[in-house]
Amino acid sequence: MTDRAGTPAEASDLIDPEEVSAAYYELVPDVSKVEQKVVFGTSGHRGSSLDAAFNETHIAAITQAIVEYRAGQGITGPLFIGRDTHILSGPAERTAVEVLTGNDVKVLADAEGGYVPTPALSHAILVYNNDPANTDKADGIVVTPSHNPPRDGGFKYNPPHGGPADSDATNWIANRANEIIAAGNVDVKRGVGTPGRHDFLRGYVGDLVNIIDIDAIKMAGVKIGADPLGGASVEYWGAIRDVYGLDLTVTNPGVDPTWRFMTLDWDGKIRMDPSSPSAMASVVHRKDEFDVLTGNDADADRHGIVTPDGGLMNPNHYLAVAIDYLYTHRPEWRDDAAIGKTLVSSSIIDKVAESHGRRLWEVPVGFKWFVPGLVDGSVAFGGEESAGASFLRKDGTVWTTDKDGILLALLASEIIAVTGKTPSQLYAELVEKYGDPVYQRVDAAATKEQKTRLGKLDGDAIEATELAGDRITAKLSKAPGNDAAVGGVKVVTDKAWFAARPSGTEDVYKIYAESFEGPEHLARVQAEAKTIVDAALGA
Fold first, then answer.
1. Taking the CB of the first residue and of the last residue of the chain, which one, N or C, has fewer CB atoms within 10 A?
2. Of these residues, 49, 146, 386, 477, which one is catalytic?
3. 146 among known catalytic residues
4. pLDDT at 219 over 80
């Protein structure tokens, strides 16, 4: 961690927006180079125009590939498109609209030409597709690199189920896009770029009353601070205040493509991560001014919860509290509706699930795995350790199938209104019942070959029988919830666990670890985890 973490950004930390924008149009990628190819990760294609990794050529080709993909899938309805506040999102949205209209796709952009949070776009797709009057199916594109630094751009496709596309779709789109680029983009069709319009904001904000107990928040007079961190939720929080008459202050209504108002993240970069203590330092500084203070990343699919008594909550802690609260305050949810969590989320969630007699549905990393369960109501809550989650409406029907940081932030106010306690106070009560887990993620060096082997590693390749002095009870290479490959391995004892997964962007692998025995035991788990994994990889 840099010694500048949590300090205000300085002039030397800022991007030159004109330089980043110019590179989008001027640099042409060479897809024979791996770093310049179209690659869809868990949240779409990301990169910087300055590195020839996110340029007009990429976006035109990806959009053309999406047009061809949706045609092959028989998707004939409108395509909703929205962007966040990154400097590259505007140019990329314009390029995409030109290609969509050039292919005679009915494209719907924001009615006011404004920013569109990821959850608002997912919500719009689902509302359209669940309307019996619509006989066709809609899908969508979100132009966002999420919490990535200001120099980056991102482009994500959401099919008719409203959530992130699965790997079958993204692999096809990426491969086709790279073919198009290699051939000089001659297959790309461009139009005049005039989209239709859709009111994302009013559709989303007006529907919140059907998933959050707004009346309870208003009657209790909960004093709310909401910091969009310069992202797409800025107008949404103001609308929530005005529509519902809440005591809500948008603490930072500014939008600046350099994000000069941010404090630096752990590595000295500007990164709009609402779960990072360093990135949220300026927000936490105001914690005593409100009953609850929240943050969102640039596309508002992540949440950060700050309380006067606890400061910034660990995302795992808040997920546990949210689950414990929701499964006792949503009587219309199905009795058999499961609790969804990713494989690397805290085990205190397992204990909460058991206490409520609910099935735990544990899946690999990636929100896409929760989509089927949220759609049919068999999973009422899906959450991941990186501060992303969504849940069902009060009546047990689907709300969004993508992460919703606005929703989870607003839920914190409902929890305070109904229980009279902050989420951090409620987490302390969970700790009294189930113990106090210590959780951390660290990185370990790995070659590209070792990363490839780790991604395909079978649990049986782990020869160790003990971890930090305790018997290993499970060696998982497939998720218990859906038997899908985890792209790594998870090793479990009665007191701790670790999971190892290769990084998609750096020559490292990630070690997630948790212990119910304290920091010293966690450190031992982490050290032995690296030894165990390195042995399996032949390092």
1. N
2. 146
3. yes
4. yes
